[in-house]
C-alpha cells in the first residue's frame, strides 16, 4: 500500500523539488537535512513527552526521503552511487534516533519493559535492513518480509502520535506489534536467502 502511495507523494513534492533545484540545492543536502531534522526532533520531543508534536515534525522530515529522489531527477543527474549509499546509511541513523527517543521516553516514565520492547524494535529493524543489504551484496534477492522500513515507521509514528493525543494503550500495543512483525520479517528474510543458496 505504501509503495502505491509513493507516486502520488512524488507528484505532490515535485513543485518543492523544482524550487530547490533552481536554488542549486542537491539531493544529498536534502537527505542530510532530513536526517538531521529527524534525529534532533526525536531526541528532543519524545523524551520530553511531546509525542504528537514530535511525530508531526518528524513526518515533515521523513518526507525528505522522497524529496531527495525528486531533486535528483529534476536536477538531470538521477541517482548516484554515493547518493544511494548516503541515503541508505542515513535512513538507519534516522530510524535509530526515533526508537532511541521512544526508549528515553519510556525510561523517563520508569517503564523498563516498554523500553526493552522499543530496544528490541530498534535492533530487529537494523537486522532486517542488514539482512537485505548483505544478501544483495552476495548477489541474492531479499525484498521480502512483513515489516519493511516504511511499514515500521508508519506503525511507530502513528502509535506515538495517537498516544500523544491521549489514546490509552495504543503506544505499547504498537510497540509489541512492531516487535513481533520485525521478528517475523527477520525470519522471513533468513529463510528466503537460505532457499536461494540451496538452489545454487
Automatic annotation (TrEMBL):
The residues that hold Mg(2+) 2 are 65, 87, 91
Bilayer topology term: Multi-pass membrane protein
Endoplasmic reticulum as a keyword of this entry, yes or no, is no
Transmembrane regions: 50-72, 113-131, 152-169, 175-191
Where does this protein hold a CDP-1,2-diacyl-sn-glycerol?
Answer: 28-31, 69, 73, 80
What's the main place this protein lives?
membrane
Domain of life of the organism encoding this protein: Bacteria
What does the record give as its pathway? Answer: Phospholipid metabolism; phosphatidylinositol phosphate biosynthesis
EC number(s) per entry: 2.7.8.-
Q: What class of enzyme is it?
A: transferase
Q: How cofactor binds (record note)?
A: Contains a di-nuclear catalytic Mg(2+) center.
Subcellular location(s) of the protein:
Cell membrane; Endomembrane system
Query: Required cofactors, per record?
Result: Mg(2+)
Recorded catalytic reaction(s): these are: a CDP-1,2-diacyl-sn-glycerol + 1D-myo-inositol 3-phosphate = a 1,2-diacyl-sn-glycero-3-phospho-(1D-myo-inositol-3-phosphate) + CMP + H(+); 1,2-di-(9Z-octadecenoyl)-sn-glycero-3-cytidine-5'-diphosphate + 1D-myo-inositol 3-phosphate = 1,2-di-(9Z-octadecenoyl)-sn-glycero-3-phospho-(1D-myo-inositol-3-phosphate) + CMP + H(+)
| This protein's UniProt keywords | Cell membrane, Lipid biosynthesis, Lipid metabolism, Magnesium, Membrane, Metal-binding, Phospholipid biosynthesis, Phospholipid metabolism, Transferase, Transmembrane, Transmembrane helix
Kindly list the positions annotated as binding Mg(2+) 1: 65, 68, 87
Per its record, what are the GO molecular function terms? transferase activity
- Provide the active-site residues from the annotation: 91 (proton acceptor)
Q: Phosphoprotein: present as a keyword of the record?
A: no
> What InterPro entries does the entry give?
CDP-OH_P_trans, CDP-OH_PTrfase_TM_dom, PIP_synthase_PgsA1
State whether it acts alone or in a complex, and with which partners, per the record: Homodimer.
Cited function: Catalyzes the conjugation of the 1'-hydroxyl group of D-myo-inositol-3-phosphate (also named L-myo-inositol-1-phosphate) with a lipid tail of cytidine diphosphate diacylglycerol (CDP-DAG), forming phosphatidylinositol phosphate (PIP) and CMP. PIP is a precursor of phosphatidylinositol (PI) which is an essential lipid required for cell wall formation.
The UniProt family comment states: Belongs to the CDP-alcohol phosphatidyltransferase class-I family.
Which HAMAP family does the record associate with it? PIP_synthase (MF_02241)
UniProt-recorded name of the protein: Phosphatidylinositol phosphate synthase
Origin organism is Nonomuraea indica
